[in-house]
Design brief:
The chain is α/β, with parallel strands linked by helices. It is built from 13 helices and 17 strands. Helices cover 29% and strands 23% of the residues.
Length: 451
């Protein structure tokens, strides 16, 4: 057995001082004092906090955006993940138009082989028809119960009526669907308008995707959810206007899940006017908003109105990829890195306003529950998987592209002073990283989600 001794455990019952033992890939004992046998390996973690392994419910690894591939594939992205305490990523398998969901799933499973952390999939539906509909029970059987649809991006979007049908159909498998809420057709025209005005730099990005187009799309999703009598999931919420729409839907009794990401809690749109095209590093969608939005979302996180904080990790290199849009902001590949730094950034930024159990909920437990991995994951519990992040709150260090493991030439958190670091991270009971450095163990596996 591996025995973690003298730590403080963050459990569903609250914080407890206890030892934790793992055998193979399971947690087998949680007791005040677990005596070690000769064959056991003991880790003294006095002063450390033990979390259920963090789950990033929103990553794009090995994605082709139609023009280029993301800087990170599964191998590099999950290596970064384990160094920062994330033991499971939920990525997006995307159906090609004319193709089946099953083929898409097989393809993405192959891409994910050799991952350092565990992985599950949301299935992005881009071609809704009778055949796709008939595949929903197949997906359930294969272990995919969360889906994705887009209100933006011409190659990915579904129509409003299609989304209504999807929402209705998912009820039969108890599935959930996350939706990219921005009004794509309006954005297409607003982008042309900015370019025609001669606004070609990154600062035109947020202007072409104002908060209203997010709020409108969230509102549409909520009403379609009401019509279908189905729950809805708003991914990467970025604005106060969008938050108000969610509040209104919840007030009338609807089940609306909300995700936001660290970038919307730390930065405002001032970053887009940095010199030397630096703003391109923050060209992601929805865009960063005003400080008023940042504060509204921070309060929503603290007040429990946000269910999950995941990253939308979608990395492109600044020098060779972001700069393709040097003279046209619409050609800057959208997305930014985050999978390696989310737990550290959140635990540092919210150290005075969130308790450790609240962190565990926002970054592990709620993802596990919403996407049907609980209690196998998302909880320190006897019988649960031995995915564990040991946090040392007494270690200080500085986040930099120079010391990261995800495969991209920048981080939006460059210079961030972290107050704490992942001391040990176990994936399936195997030590995957220590003091923020990988051990070289590659034990990630596909995690089916079961309703
Ligand atoms: Mn999106
Ligand atoms: Mn995304």
């Amino acid at each position: 057995m591996n025995i973690l001794k003298n730590g403080t455990l963050v459990t569903p019952q609250g914080m407890i001082r206890a030892d934790l033992a793992m055998k193979q890939d399971k947690i087998v004992k949680i007791e005040a004092d677990i005596p070690a046998q000769k064959s056991d390996r003991v880790w003294d973690i006095t002063g450390c906090v033990v979390f259920p392994g963090f789950i990033d419910g929103h990553t794009h690894l090995d994605l082709n955006n139609g023009v280029m591939d993301t800087a990170d594939n599964f191998k590099t992205g999950t290596l970064g993940a384990v160094c920062g305490g994330t033991t499971t990523v939920i990525d997006f398998a995307t159906q090609d138009k004319g193709d089946t969901l099953l083929h898409a799933l097989d393809h993405w499973k192959k891409l994910a082989e050799g991952s350092s952390c565990n992985y599950a999939f949301h299935m992005a539906i881009t071609d809704w028809n009778e055949r796709t509909k008939a595949e929903l029970p197949v997906m359930q059987k294969e272990g995919v119960t969360s889906f994705k649809a887009y209100f933006a991006y011409d190659s990915l979007m579904v129509s409003d009526y299609q989304l209504l049908e999807i929402l209705e159909s998912l009820k039969s498998i108890d599935g959930i669907i996350g939706v990219h809420c921005e009004n794509g057709p309006i954005i297409n025209e607003l982008q042309k308008r900015e370019l025609a005005r001669g606004n070609t730099g990154p600062e035109a990005h947020p202007v072409s995707r104002p908060a209203e187009v997010e709020a409108e799309a969230i509102s549409r999703l909520c009403w379609l959810g009401k019509l279908a009598d189905a729950p809805v999931h708003v991914v990467h919420l970025s604005s106060k206007l969008g938050l108000e729409v969610i509040r209104a839907a919840r007030k009338r009794g609807q089940m609306v899940y909300a995700e936001t990401c660290p970038q919307y809690l730390l930065f405002d749109d001032g970053v887009y006017s940095q010199p030397d095209f630096e703003g391109a590093k923050f060209v992601l969608s929805p865009p960063l908003r005003k400080m008023e939005d940042v504060m509204a979302l921070r309060h929503a996180v603290i007040d429990g109105e946000i269910d999950t904080v995941s990253t939308d990790h979608c990395s492109f290199n600044f020098e060779t990829q972001k700069k393709v849009g040097l003279h046209d902001f619409t050609k800057i590949p959208n997305g930014g890195p985050g999978v390696e730094h989310r737990p550290t950034v959140m635990l540092t930024s919210f150290q005075d306003s969130l308790s450790y159990p609240e962190f565990a909920k926002l970054m592990s437990e709620n993802q596990a529950k919403l996407f049907h991995l609980f209690p196998r994951k998302g909880a320190l519990k006897v019988g649960s998987d031995a995915d564990i992040a040991v946090w040392d709150p007494n270690c200080t260090w500085t986040i930099s592209a120079a010391n990261q493991h995800q495969n991209v030439d920048y981080t939006p958190y460059e210079g961030f002073q972290a107050s704490g670091r992942m001391k040990y991270v176990f994936v399936n009971g195997v030590l995957a990283s220590q003091d923020g450095e990988p051990t070289g163990e590659v034990v990630g596996r596909f995690e089916p989600t079961r309703t």
